[in-house]
Specification:
Blueprint (H helix, E strand, L loop, with lengths): L1 H36 L1 H4 L7 H25 L4 H22 L6 H25 L5
Helix pairs in contact: 1-3, 1-4, 3-4, 3-5, 4-5
Keywords: Membrane, Transmembrane, Transmembrane helix
Amino acid sequence: MNHLHFANVERSFLALLAGFATMAVLITMVTAAISKTFPRWVGEQDHPRRRYLLLNLVYSAAFAATGGYVTAIIARPDPLRHILMLAIVILVLSALSALQLRGQQSISYQFALIVLTPVAVLAGGLLRMHQAGYRW
């Protein structure tokens, strides 16, 4: 019984880690690629252009949904709980990031990230659950 519980804890941790890592790696790679390839389009580090911020919101949401999807795949026995946990982690980290970057980025952009990314995690995870046959 103890071994089974430990395996469930491992799977839960792996599901959250995989979803978060998927999101973080994809966002980091695309941000770096855009910044290196189109530096004038991005703008200054302290004052990025609005169209770049909008693009960043779009791909951050898409990759957050991908992270939720991956989490739901790995957390087969109870995907909804794990999707919600990942969404809460993303919400807390986004809020902490907004506090740390206070004054460096617009409040509306930070608020959009705080709201959009956890919702996207939920959407991606729920999409996977629907594909897997979960009904609610």
